[in-house]
Amino acid sequence: QTSYDVHAVEAKWLPVWERLDPFRASDDAVVSGEREKRYALTMFPYPSGDLHMGHAEVFALHDVIARYWRFRGYEVLNPMGWDSFGLPAENAAIRNDEHPATYTYANIDTQFHSMKRYATSVDWSRRLHTSDPEYYRWTQWLFLKLREQGMAYRKNSPVNWCPRDQTVLANEQVLADGTCERCGAEVTKRELTQWFFRTTAYAQELYDCLDDLQDSWIGKVVNAQRSWIGRSEGAHVTFDVDGHDPITVFTTRPDTLFGTTFMVVAVDAKLAEELVTDEQRAEFETYRDEIRKASDIDRLATDRPKTGVFLGVHATNPLTGERIPVWATDYVLADYGTGAVMGVPGGDQRDWEFATTMDLPIVRTTEPPADWDGEAFNGEGPAINSPADGVTSALDINGLSVAEAKAATIAHLESIGHGEGTVNFRLRDWLLSRQRYWGAPIPVIHCPVDGEVPVPEDQLPVELPELRGADLKPKGTSPLGAAEEWVNVTCPTCGGPAKRDTDTMDTFVDSSWYFFRYLSPHDDTQAFDSALAEAWGPIDLYIGGDEHAVLHLLYARFFTKVLRDAGLITWDEPFAAYLSQGKVINNGRKMSKSLGNGVDLGAQLDEFGVDAVRLTLVFASPPEDNIDWADMSPAGSLRFLQRAWRLSGDVESAPGADPAAGDAALRKVTHRTVREAEQLVEAYRFNVVVARTMELVNATRKAIDSGPGGADPAVREAAEVVARLLSLVAPYTAEEMWERLGHEPSVASASWPEVDESLLVEDTVTCVVQVQGKVRATLEVSPDATDEQLTELALAEPNVQRAIDGAEVRRVIVRAPKLVNVVV
Ligand code: ANZ
């Protein structure tokens, strides 16, 4: 037999694995401490369409480590489910005129069958869907838990609004160019009463814990989180304002307060509206309405011409007593810091341009270098102009460095009650309300007497009304509002008429805690079992795309910290290690409908079989690199798999034959391969594991055809190692080999090959010979060569002789077995 039938093999093994169920994770083994745990998690898919090449890649990579850990004796939890609420399903449902549930569950079914065929080592008994009432009951419970902890609240605020999806978006869902992450429409602003999670309460901790993740996460993901949280040290400075309450600003440069020649407030902040005088109001409102259309990104762009309106009022510089004008502008954001900025044209380029445009004074407070020919200077230099000529102040910081001047100014402001040192974060609270149908209803009742009333726990879940045939098209208010019978309820507190909250939760809420639910997905008494969380958590390796580097990972980290503070778990971070895979592209471009370069996973599987596709994806590159499918050869992968499989047919010794009697050279290759595979898997260099397996296949083939032959027990040993290594990526082929080698299924339950350390000793090492410190020769020597042997060999080398050139050898320094240095 020279090849096996790819599809017959798939049909053969699936029912066997179904029966053996080798990947079911045992809670008992872990809780009792009988076995060490590994929790291997890969991001669960959205059920839009069938699985695609990207899924195939991440599942294949993930399976290498999950199966490897199992081989090494860990109890491995490798669960899978669906992130099945959310806009994609809802939009598709509207397009196809069907209910989101119909679309969602049909796709889940399709994906489930594809995943089964794809044969990853999943414990399917833990399968979950976030759109099931059994799941979102606990999402709602957690929402109430967060509310109880003071971590969920409602407020009126300007929000990002997608005019096409007609829904509010979190900051994270607005792309850098100001468009909607999902549909590409230009995002605008709107005022709405919305639910928020208080992520800012954990800003410092979310930031600090990144230090511990630096090495076990991908660097760029840690950095993305850092800049998203955006920690800035500085001060709050309070300015008195004529006829109004004082205004506090946030500044990173309190030392520049002497150079503050004006104040600017965000044009769309309430503050601007409150400050503006009657004379200036008309001009202000025209300006504001125009700006509302611009995105934050545009507004902060440094190359944007500076615009603004004088509000008609003045503030007082707390250090100098000077009166400075207060302006409204668009380059100050309403929701960062306090929404007001002290204008320091000498130190901030945007302020410089604003001052020049509006003809406001410029005073430098840091001395630029002598050759400075720029405008605003925000580098290092001695403080100047405190006080400047004609200005009196109790504070003199002239000559101090920036850091010293900052500290002195903060101390002074604190002493006069006009400010304090503070830390500011760019991170905003998480806006979780969505005015859409396909999500978990927010479990709150609004009562005219009792206000916001949480739905009592025993009435959860608040199930989504079916709304069959209803118009789900986004209109700016939730479609749930139309379900009158559902909306109108009696207040749990007073029994009077009340209404349900009609917003649903952002899908990211569902995915912020799913890894807890996998621990006991069928438990109908609690969201998750704390004892199981203690036993299984945290996740040992999380694999997923870096499009989730900011949002999902941050939210999951936030949830974990809140749950810890609620006493439900003890660990601080959910993901001990995180790996993000590259993308599968085609012909150098991202796969897309418009380019017509999509590669259909199903067609690839039909043509080459699961194993060849998986092998191709793992072998292509290190996990984090992109894979260009156009450069790949799944046909080549299949040929390799057939070659590996043929080894199992050529083994002639019986199972259990003692390999010690076998060919030593082949045994060395085998054992070295096992040891390297261990190191490579642990370093996530899965592609190299495949390369080493290929080398071992070649060495084994050579031993069979032109070496000791198939009857040599070393050949059996090698083939059995090949089967186990292959099972990490090509489970069908591996199972087939294992069976042909005379073993019971499943190869996944076999034990990992034990390395014979004595076979790892290198045959020779390279010894460098120097004369007067210069390399003159290299020798291949035994690793146990003695000093005397090495000296003798070195001096006998013609090149060394030539370099010595008859001079007297005064000393030979030997560092056996790698170095000989001859001194003449
Ligand atoms: C005076 C000053 C002088 C500033 C100077 C900088 C340099 P990060 O580092 O991003 O936190 N700022 C404060 N609130 C703002 C808002 N809502 N919109 C736009 N800009 C705002 O930046 C903090 C600095 O950005 C603050 O320090 C403030 O300008 C500005 F030589 O205050 B600075």
Automatic annotation (TrEMBL):
> Which residue intervals define the domain Methionyl/Valyl/Leucyl/Isoleucyl-tRNA synthetase anticodon-binding in the entry?
664-786
Which GO terms fall under molecular function for this chain's record? aminoacyl-tRNA deacylase activity; ATP binding; leucine-tRNA ligase activity
Please provide one cellular component term from the Gene Ontology annotations of this protein.
Answer: cytosol
Q: Where is the signal peptide?
A: none
Query: What is the designated name of this protein?
Result: Leucine--tRNA ligase
Q: Which reaction does it catalyse?
A: tRNA(Leu) + L-leucine + ATP = L-leucyl-tRNA(Leu) + AMP + diphosphate
What Pfam families does the record point to? Anticodon_1 (PF08264), tRNA-synt_1 (PF00133), tRNA-synt_1_2 (PF13603)
Q: What InterPro entries does the entry give?
A: aa-tRNA-synth_I_CS (IPR001412), aa-tRNA-synth_Ia (IPR002300), Leu-tRNA-ligase (IPR002302), Leu_tRNA-synth_edit (IPR025709), M/V/L/I-tRNA-synth_anticd-bd (IPR013155), Rossmann-like_a/b/a_fold (IPR014729), tRNAsynth_Ia_anticodon-bd (IPR009080), Val/Leu/Ile-tRNA-synth_edit (IPR009008)
Q: Which gene encodes it?
A: leuS
**Lineage of this protein's species?**
Bacteria, Bacillati, Actinomycetota, Actinomycetes, Propionibacteriales
